[in-house]
Amino acid sequence: MNEDLKVNVSGLPRDYLDAGAAGNVSAAVSSQVPGVEPEPELVVNPWDIVLCTSGTLISCENAIVVLIIFHNPSLRAPMFLLIGSLALADLLAGIGLIVNFVFAYLLQSEATKLVTIGLIVASFSASVCSLLAITVDRYLSLYYALTYHSERTVTFTYVMLVMLWGTSICLGLLPVLGWNCLQDESTCSVVRPLTKNNAAILSISFLFMFALMLQLYIQICKIVMRHAHQIALQHHFLATSHYVTTRKGVSTLAIILGTFAACWMPFTLYSLIADYTYPSIYTYATLLPATYNSIINPVIYAFRNQEIQKALCLICCGCIPSSLSQRAPSPSDV
């Protein structure tokens, strides 16, 4: 009798109590076990797509130049070695942009960030240094025209290549070896994980090399104008012919230097004044033109060269057009 009272003390039927208890247990369990949330969709930054596309174009374009120079044993003069160095550096820069896109969205880790930024810094540094080396080679070919084609010039070219690639690799290894901002975000530059000091050194180095290139191109321009004037006097050319020839040479030099400055100067100056707190859209907007320089380089330095044009025609169609075989180099090809 007492047992029945204990069970029905609530005045409710036993079946209702059992159902209610089961419901309470079920509710308690469901409140403790979190629901399976849908995985967040992968959102791709459009700027990263543009950079990856730019990297693909850079890689394809410069791979052609590297293959042409590597495939032709006749293209082993100092000038072609430096053009090949420029094309190889730009090729690695394009690959770096592609790898950066893949790692950013498919394989995210601190190690991949450091390796990717190291590759990009090293390749772009080698590209800018190769441009400076080409400028030095052009100056020497005009200033020391009589002794330029000698073994000493070849040796000097190899020394320049070793120095520029050694310096570039060292700059690329700095983030990997610990000079990065992964542990202290307050020291980050506009390009994570580069530190502010690292970005400042790269920017100041670029400004120094740009000033040196500007000075060398001014000297080249003076030499070209003097040579063109002497040729005009020897062959009794008209003054207008001398003016047209000189103007072509000066225009070519202006295009080379102007393109280089227009591509790299915005990002260089922005890296000096900005840090990680600035909106990322400014970084993308200034970095993208810098990548365009690697797209333009093959057009300016490789595909305009008569020997490379001949080699490209031989590879593509197995013949050399008469327009190329009969064409003589002009001062505008400097």
Could you explain the architecture of this structure?
The protein is mainly α. It has one domain: Up-down Bundle (Rhopdopsin 7-helix transmembrane proteins). Helix content is 76%, strand content 0%. Helix 3 (46-71) packs antiparallel against helix 4 (78-106), helix 5 (110-143) packs parallel to helix 7 and helix 7 packs antiparallel against helix 8. The chain is globular.
Query: How many alpha or pi helices?
Result: 11
Number of strands: 0
**What percent of the residues sit in helical stretches (DSSP H or I)?**
over 70%
CATH architecture: Up-down Bundle
- Output the CATH topology: Rhopdopsin 7-helix transmembrane proteins
Structural class: mainly alpha
Percentage of residues in strands: under 5%
Summarize the biggest pleated sheet.
Answer: none
Detail the topology: elements first, then pairings:
Layout: H1 2-7, H2 14-32, H3 46-71, H4 78-106, H5 110-143, H6 151-176, H7 196-234, H8 239-273, H9 280-302, H10 306-317, H11 322-325
Helix pairs in contact: 3-4, 3-9, 4-5, 4-6, 4-9, 5-6, 5-7, 7-8, 8-9
